[in-house]
Structure formats: C-alpha cells, structure tokens
Write a structure and sequence with these properties.
- The protein is mainly beta.
- The protein has one domain: Nucleoside-specific channel-forming protein, Tsx-like (Outer membrane phospholipase (ompla), Chain C, Beta Barrel).
- It contains one helix and twelve strands.
- A twelve-stranded antiparallel beta barrel has the order 1-2-3-4-5-6-7-8-9-10-11-12.
- It is globular, with a radius of gyration of 19 Å.
- Keywords: Signal.
Length: about 260
C-alpha cells in the first residue's frame, strides 16, 4: 500500500506539473506536451521478450513542435532504481490520411546491479551501459480503425554486454473499437524478428488497452511468446498488466498508446 500511495502521489505531481507547464511551454514555443505514467507487476521492455521480472514504474513524456518531438522513456523498479532511460528524438517524415512514416533516434542507458570487491570488501553498485538506437516506422491506415505497420529498431552498445541489436516488427492495429457507449479498446497483435549479436529469435506478442472516454486511467495487457529463439532470457511465455494514467494539454481523454 505504501508503494501504491507513493505512485499516486507521483501521478498527482506529474498532473500538477503538466498544468503548471502551460505557461512555460508557451515560452518554449511547444505545440503540445503530453505523457503517460504506468505501474505494472512485471516491467516490459521496448522489446517485449525482455522484462524486468519485478514490479515497475514507467514514464513516457512527449514534447511536440510541428513534425519534431522529444520523448523521454524512463523505467524504474518500485524501489526507485532506474532500469532503462531512452531519450528519443523523433520526426514525422510523412503523414497523410492513409500513410505515415516516422523516423527516430535515441541515446539510451541500461542499468543493472552488480557485485564488486572494493578494498577487500564486497559491495553492490548500480552499473549503467550506453546505447544508441535508430528507428523507422511506416504505417498504412486501411480504414479509420484498422491499420497495418512495420517497426524497425537498430541498437548499438558501447559497453560490456550486447553490441548490436536488430528488432523488426510487423503488426496490425485495431483502434477505437467500441465496447459500449463509453468503453473502447485498442488491440495490436504482432510478430517480430530479433537479433542480439550472433543470436536470433522469432516471437509473437500482443497489446490490448481498455479505456473509458474522458477518463485518464486505462488498463493495458501485454503477452509475449517465443516461437523459436536462441536469445536469453528465453521464457516461453511472459505477460504483464499495466495501470496507466495519461495527461495532455490538448486532449484530456488521451490514453496510453503502444509505440510500434
């Protein structure tokens, strides 16, 4: 209960910040500012086959100016230890009624706890590893509620650990599917190919979000299953449930969207 209370206080603080940020945002000439805070029993990475394995807090912020955006993506354990921090710079290269193309790049940090010997004594420290990534995201809208897309991410590591990652996704998206007058859902099934240095893997996953109109809270379910993989961890099946709180200056009823 103490952790949940802390999370709710964080949500209130972020909401207050979003409201107070309006004047500052105008001074920075931003077109929009929005964000989502989530709490989950099992933190899931941008690549769904990797998870923290413990409860986590996720924060996604977006600062928008015309076709450009700066989007910090930060993930923490409930104890406050950082897990990953990605600082995305994104550009909408093309966008019309049917087709869109997004390009992006980020510096990133991945954190892990390691044991070292210092002055003859065992000590636990938090170690960070540096990465650079780049993405290409084309999408074609078949109807106003159904789309098909691809997501490609290339990652390069500079410290001990994985040096090169390729993440290629093919997905369908079903958006704003009405369940009732006020409830609706978004559903994104996908298959993807992943390489981690010389290792490869094939997977299927899905994201399902249930939301209520004009309500900032929503629920997202994530499932991931390996089809054939050499990459560790090679759990045959992982899943996660997220409680999301979204805020936006221009849209009070926005809810968490999957970034693929």
């Amino acid at each position: 209960m103490k952790k949940i209370g802390t999370f709710l206080l964080l949500l209130l603080g972020m909401t207050s910040y979003a409201q107070e940020n309006e004047q500052e945002k105008n001074n920075m000439f931003l077109d929009d500012f929005r964000g989502t805070a989530s709490i989950t029993h099992n933190g899931v990475s941008l690549v769904p086959s990797f998870s923290l394995g413990d409860p986590a807090l996720l924060f996604d912020l977006k600062f928008i100016k015309k076709k450009f955006s700066f989007e910090p993506d930060m993930r923490f354990s409930l104890e406050g230890k950082p897990w990953t921090m990605l600082f995305w710079f994104r550009y909408k290269a093309m966008e019309n009624e049917k087709f869109s193309l997004r390009l992006g790049a980020h510096p990133g940090l991945n954190f892990r706890t390691v044991n070292i010997i210092r002055n003859g004594q065992s000590e636990t420290i938090l170690e960070s590893r540096r990465y650079l990534g780049a993405e290409v995201v084309p999408k074609y809208q078949i109807t106003n509620k159904i789309g098909v897309g691809m997501y490609y991410l290339y990652g390069r590591g500079f410290d001990e650990g994985v040096k090169e990652t390729n993440f290629l996704v093919f997905n369908l998206s079903f958006n704003q599917i009405a369940l009732s007058n006020s409830l609706f859902l978004n559903f994104t099934p996908q298959v993807y190919y992943l390489t981690s240095d010389e290792l490869t893997g094939y997977y299927t996953s899905g994201f399902l979000t249930i939301a209520k109109k004009k309500c900032p809270f929503s629920l997202t379910g994530v499932i991931n299953k390996g089809i054939s993989t050499q990459i560790l961890p090679d759990d045959d099946f992982t899943w996660s449930i997220l409680l999301n709180y979204s805020f936006s200056k221009s849209q009070r009823n926005t809810f968490k969207q999957t970034k693929v």
